[in-house]
Design goal:
By secondary structure, the protein is an all-alpha fold. It has one domain. Helix content is 87%, strand content 0%. Helix 3 runs parallel beside helix 8 and helix 4 packs antiparallel against helix 5. The longest helix has 70 residues. The chain is rod-shaped, with a radius of gyration of 30 Å.
Length: 226
């Protein structure tokens, strides 16, 4: 048996149904990730205006420790980043700025957890479905070849073969349709979450700049007092 015949035999034995089941499993995992990320992102958001006002009141009194506690209470991305800068407030604005940049990288890594899966599924699910379609088409042509080898003039056998071929092609196309159906939501939510991450990170600038403004002012006042 040649290599091509061997591969064809394996494909015909496996059929295309397992591809649909695989796509279904990938879709369920995608749904779980979407729900988990949505809940996490909602928890990590905050009212920036109200938080900035409370932080401003703390920093105006020089209460860095209280500001850190206030930010930690929010459990937000912006609060974690600003708190990282305040922990190095005694080392100056430059050190605080570097600390906040490091915190941004850490928070982005935490926010992007599992999103690579959604991107991968969105990009490759149609190809997985297309593979299932190819397997189904191979089976359809195999049935067509078997029908051609049947006795000439056997109208009933020819009609049965044609029906089997059409049924195989229809089933094969289902795999492609399912692949596209799985890919579209994955891509949509991947892009949606990426925009949400960008918004959360951008929101941290409000608190980070406020922290740096006070630290710079404190450093200037300390220099003038010498």
């Amino acid at each position: 048996m040649s290599t091509i015949e061997l591969v064809k035999d394996v494909l015909l034995r496996s059929g295309a149904s397992w591809v649909v089941w695989l796509l279904g499993a990938l879709s369920l995992i995608s749904i779980a990730i979407v729900v988990e990320r949505f809940l996490v992102f909602r928890r990590l958001g905050l009212d920036l205006r109200a938080t900035a006002e409370r932080l401003d009141a703390r920093l105006a009194n020089g209460d860095h420790a209280g500001a850190i506690v206030e930010l930690a209470r929010t459990e937000s991305v912006a609060g974690s980043i600003a708190a990282a800068g305040l922990r190095l407030a005694d080392r100056g604005p430059d050190a605080a700025a570097k600390a906040m940049q490091s915190a941004v990288a850490l928070e982005r890594s935490r926010l992007e957890r599992w999103l690579a899966y959604l991107g991968t599924v969105g990009n490759n699910a149609p190809f997985v479905g297309l593979f299932g379609t190819v397997v189904g088409v191979v089976g359809a042509f195999d049935k067509l070849g078997q029908g051609a080898a049947a006795k000439a003039g056997a109208a009933a056998a020819a009609q049965a073969t044609n029906l089997a071929v059409m049924s195989s092609i229809a089933e094969a196309l289902v795999a492609t349709a399912v692949g596209i159906l799985v890919a579209l939501p994955a891509v949509a939510f991947y892009n949606y979450f990426q925009r949400w991450i960008a918004s959360l990170i951008a929101g941290s600038d409000v608190l980070s700049n406020l922290v740096l403004a006070y630290l710079s002012a404190e450093r200037t006042e300390a220099g003038d007092g010498r």
